[in-house]
Amino acid sequence: MPINYLRGFTKPERSDETNRRLGRSLAFVAGAANAGGFLAVGQYTSHMSGIVSSLADNLALGELDVVVAGLSSLLSFLIGAATSAILINWGRRRDSHSQYAVPLLLEASLLLFFGLLGSNLETHRVLFVPATVCVLCYVMGLQNAMITKISKSEIRTTHVTGLVTDIGIELGKLFYWNVGATHRNAVRADREKLFLLGSLLLSFLMGGLTGAFGFRHLGFVATVPLAIILLTLAVVPIVDDMFAQRR
């Protein structure tokens, strides 16, 4: 694969095409990590709406241990998003080539750690399950904030509620019957946006299937290929910075 093609995924100079290419790749990784995480610990880790709803339910029921677990998940996602923002802004201040690649490198490292050590730690379920949930929530927050900043809030990859909503809106426009409408007030769908949203949804779905089958047949090591994907997306700008510092 050409170096310039790989560099385009996370280089500072952005275009709609590179954002979409990156978004589809990250949606695949998020779907796989989310599905694999559910099989590992019985909980989805990118669904903050569900976690907040669960917080409210269990708080009302007095299930304080579950409330603490939910708060930990929520805070982990929040801290992950904050970490991504800090790393990106730090990179921008230094005018580095890898300002968007560093969060992906951190995400890849955590997934690699999870994949290589997960099977060894699984016997300690009392600590393993909460730690795994927090790590995966942190990773999802890290990734979602990164693609949100890089695309100026146009693309999100770790959950599909917004995607499905926007797809529904565009489909409503597409099938709207413009009888008697003039060219000025006719309702028209943004077909390019609809294609992007559909491709992100499909990427998340394919990632989920891949993650579920991978974890079922390979166990925790199924996250290692996801880490390799992220490393591939991030490595060229990081190497560019290393060469720039040597000059």
From TrEMBL:
InterPro entries in UniProt: DUF1275
Asked if rRNA-binding is a keyword of the record, the answer is: no
Record-annotated membrane-spanning stretches: 26-46, 66-88, 100-121, 127-147, 194-214, 220-239
* Top-rank taxon, per record: Bacteria
Q: Which Pfam families match?
A: DUF1275
Q: Which UniProt keywords apply?
A: Membrane, Transmembrane, Transmembrane helix
State the name under which the record lists this protein: DUF1275 domain-containing protein
